[in-house]
Structure to design on (218 residues):
């Protein structure tokens, strides 16, 4: 007998002859077992509109889209460089230039990626957080000057010198629509609790999305 938590989940796409002209009022399903002997037990059936299969309604590919530049190339993220000394609060825009922005209400939140290059040893770790400390991340291992630390929400990457690490507590961060504010702290001594004196270069990459064809405001 198959344990409940091990039940397989199947996805498929059904195309209507002309989805723009015909509305589906009834769907018939037939389950067929081939090259096997046994009994099939079906628990749940879920339908979602759209061409992207996610298991949820709606799929992100139906809700969101990338903005494009003047040549029609998709803009996936925007890059900002920061010099960090000790403890700083930084702002990261998640929008186009004001002269190029058509509608700020089309902006949505995205993932926030950080890449840090320490310019001196960091034996006491790093601290990242949203401005009001509602979502925090703390690296709990030392870094050497010249190391590479990656903390990326878009790829779920936490790595030191390209090697994955689990020496941390906390969560990945997001960048809200229009602007994200973050607290960043670099500690390189332990002479006083909360005393931050480290330094380095921080690359901030905002994953930029806008509302797509399935995400129109009502």
């Amino acid at each position: 007998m198959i344990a409940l938590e091990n039940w397989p989940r199947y996805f498929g796409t059904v195309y209507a002859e002309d989805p723009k002209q015909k509305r589906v009022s009834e769907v018939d399903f037939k389950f067929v077992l081939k090259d096997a002997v046994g009994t099939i037990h079906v628990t749940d059936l879920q339908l979602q509109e759209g061409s992207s299969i996610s298991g949820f309604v709606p799929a992100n590919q139906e809700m969101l889209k990338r903005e494009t530049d003047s040549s029609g190339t998709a803009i996936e993220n925007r890059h900002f460089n920061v010099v960090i000394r000790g403890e700083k609060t930084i702002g990261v825009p998640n929008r186009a230039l004001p002269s190029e922005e058509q509608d700020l209400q089309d902006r949505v939140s995205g993932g926030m990626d950080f890449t840090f290059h320490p310019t001196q040893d960091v034996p006491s770790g790093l601290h990242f957080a949203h401005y009001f400390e509602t979502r925090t991340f703390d690296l709990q291992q030392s870094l050497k000057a010249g190391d590479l630390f990656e903390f990326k929400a878009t790829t779920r990457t936490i790595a030191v010198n390209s090697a994955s690490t689990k020496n941390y507590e906390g969560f990945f961060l997001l960048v809200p629509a229009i602007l994200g504010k973050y607290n960043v702290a670099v500690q390189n001594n332990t002479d006083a609790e909360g005393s931050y004196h480290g330094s380095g270069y921080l690359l901030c990459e905002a994953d930029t999305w806008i509302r797509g064809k399935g995400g129109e405001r009502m």
The chain has one helix and 17 strands. The domain at 65-210 is CATH 2.60.120.860 (Jelly Rolls).
